[in-house]
Amino acid sequence: MSIWNPWRGCHKKSDGCLNCYIHRADARKGINTDEICKLDRFNLPIEKDHKGNYKVKSGQLVYLCFNSDFLIEEADEWRGDAWQIMRERSDLTFLFLTKRIERFMVGLPEDFENWNEHIVVCCTIENQEKADERLKIFRTLPIKHKMITIQPMLEKIDLTPYLDENIECVVVGGESGKDVRPLDYEWVLDVRRQCVDSNVSFEFRQLGSTFIKDHKQYQIKRQDLCKQAKKADIDFRSTLKK
Whole-angstrom Cα distance, residue 94 to residue 71? Predict the structure, then answer.
């Protein structure tokens, strides 16, 4: 696994961004997250060693833009070059999340449909309003590998209109930190049921720091959020070959 951040910085876009971990982390470092900057290691996936070999070894999963949004407006002038880097490194798998799926076609290479087998796009939602707004767009886009990320999950969500054969996985998680909004386990189980019924893979990524189960509210330590989600053992793997 590798992480590639060609630029950094982001703007809060919707309710799910209220307690954004990137903004919190940057604030502790005195960094202005609203300033979008191209980074020195923009060309990371195509950097080579003294023997002429790629430094990022073939076959890896590359997490892209995990301290920004790949589709953010200020990066429009750089994104074309980033797409070409991904095109060159077809031996890697690139994965990014976005709350700006409506901007996916901005600057998209014309022949994208011919070479996007190694690109995974996760459309991020947090409530029913954003599910209906973003997933209606998401389903129309020429993307080979599509995922839905509900994190933070802020309410019960009906995904059934959008869970077709084009969605490979749904990931669910809560907010982390102090004084965050609660995640109700019943919401998680309901999305899992929808995924099982539609034969779409499901992953419970993390609890919320404020977590509700059986109508009781708990405060969960940060280091236990992912561990406890894994212990729940409710992940589901689709029988469909993607």
Answer: 14
